């Protein structure tokens, strides 16, 4: 992957204390009473035989989990595949970036997690959900997602566009937190300054940009980009909302010379900042 590492000295200095912060953060989470489920590959909308990394069975301290949810789109062979967009290529490129750009001890493969009423979801520190303009959380799933976050979990959502998909996202998000407002993240928020200073950002397009030349999707309401969040009572970001952008595609196509480095670079920096923010706040 073509990644440009910026402020490496500052990064190393900051993450020298990461082990202490990591231990503190994990000690505040309410763990599962069940052991983590083993890694499993799932059928996907775009990839059917993506190779496993050689060290996929390695035991590490952290990984990013991808949320398996129900939707009304992208069915194949009776399977609901909307949650799999960019999976698993995007996930594994991203985790390679985490290993290169931080001291987080992460494994090389993702974990797919369900809101199925069981305890497995509480084994994972953060969830990522893609194309959430079309997710449809039941009341039970919304309640468990709320409990996951209240136990110390972190949710990041990405790759949904326009006012129509925003409405679809909020239809389920208001079930999760009916009493918490969505707000725009200011440029000086700590989440943009944990490793990289990202006061200046721009719209990160999906791979459709290579065909259309547009950084936005759907219609004119697909721009500008919106960096938003939901906070807890202490002001900590607990849901990071990336609307009108596609960080997942930027990770997925970061090894393609046709996809602009500036988009991939920003997507990786955002990911690193969000992950370190979660572990240190």
Helix fraction? Answer: 25-40%
Global geometry: globular
Q: How far apart are the termini?
A: 29 Å
Q: Measured on Cα atoms, how large is the radius of gyration?
A: 18 Å
Which percent range describes the beta-strand content? 5-15%
Number of strands: 9
Description:
The chain has 281 residues and is of the alpha/beta class. The protein has eight helices and nine strands. The strands form two sheets. The chain has a seven-stranded mixed sheet, covered by helices on one side. The protein has a two-stranded antiparallel ribbon with strand order 2-3. Helix 4 crosses helix 5. The longest helix is centred in the last third of the chain and has 20 residues, at 261-280. It starts with 7 loop residues before the first helix and ends with a helix. Mean pLDDT is 90; it is low at 1-27.
């Amino acid at each position: 992957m073509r990644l440009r590492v910026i402020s490496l000295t500052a990064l190393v200095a900051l993450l020298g204390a990461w082990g202490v912060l990591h231990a503190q953060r994990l000690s505040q989470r309410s763990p599962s009473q069940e052991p983590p489920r083993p890694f499993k590959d799932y059928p996907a909308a775009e990839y059917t035989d993506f190779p496993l990394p050689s060290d996929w069975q390695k035991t590490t301290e952290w990984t990013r989990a991808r949320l398996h949810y129900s939707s009304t789109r992208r069915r194949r062979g009776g399977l609901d595949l909307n949650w799999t967009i960019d999976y698993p290529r995007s996930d594994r490129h991203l985790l390679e970036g985490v290993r290169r750009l931080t001291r987080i001890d992460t494994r090389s493969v993702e974990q797919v997690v369900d809101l199925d009423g069981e305890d497995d979801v509480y084994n994972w520190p953060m969830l990522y959900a893609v194309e959430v303009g079309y997710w449809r959380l039941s009341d039970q799933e919304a309640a468990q997602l709320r409990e996951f976050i209240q136990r110390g979990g972190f949710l990041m959502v990405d790759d949904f566009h326009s006012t129509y998909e925003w409405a679809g996202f909020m239809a389920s998000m208001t079930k999760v937190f009916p009493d918490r407002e969505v707000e725009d993240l200011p440029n000086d928020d700590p989440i943009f300054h944990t490793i990289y200073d990202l006061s200046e950002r721009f719209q990160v397009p999906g791979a459709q940009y290579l065909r259309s030349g547009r950084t936005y999707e759907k219609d004119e309401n697909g721009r500008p980009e919106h960096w938003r969040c939901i906070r807890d009572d202490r002001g900590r970001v607990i849901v990071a909302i990336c609307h009108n952008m596609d960080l997942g595609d930027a990770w997925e196509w970061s090894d393609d010379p046709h996809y602009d480095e500036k988009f991939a670079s920003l997507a990786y920096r955002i990911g690193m900042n969000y992950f370190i923010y979660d572990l240190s706040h």
